[in-house]
Amino acid sequence: MFAPGAEQLSKEEIKAGEAEARQTIQSAIVGGILLYLSPFAVDFVKKFL
User: Fold this and answer.
1) Nearest 5°: phi and psi at 41?
2) Domain ranges of the chain
3) Which keywords fit this entry according to its UniProt record (predicted)?
4) Engineering a disulfide at 9: which of 3, 5, 13, 27 sits with its beta carbon 3.0 to 4.6 angstroms away?
5) Alpha-carbon distance 1 to 22, whole Å?
6) pTM of the model
C-alpha cells in the first residue's frame, strides 16, 4: 500500500472505497443503537405478554 512505486488508485476505486467505508460506519452505528435498545425491547415484550 505504501510501498515505493505502488500504483495510484483511480477516482472510481477511491469513490468505491469511500462508499464502502461509509456503509461500514453506518452499519456499526445502527448495530450499536440496536444493541443499546435491545434490553428495552425485551422488557417491553415481557410486559406485553
Assistant:
1) -65, -40
2) 12-49
3) Membrane, Mitochondrion, Mitochondrion outer membrane, Protein transport, Transmembrane, Transmembrane helix, Transport
4) 13
5) 21
6) 0.69
The grid cell for 47 is 410486559
Rounded Cα distance, 31 and 25, in Å: 10
Q: Which helix (H) or strand (E) holds 49?
A: none
Identify the residue whose cell numbers are 467505508. Answer: 21
Residue 36, all three cell numbers:
443499546
CA angle centred on 7, ends 4 and 21, rounded to 5°: 105
Residue at grid coordinates 456499526: 28
Query: What's the CA gap between 47 and 41, in Å, rounded?
Result: 10
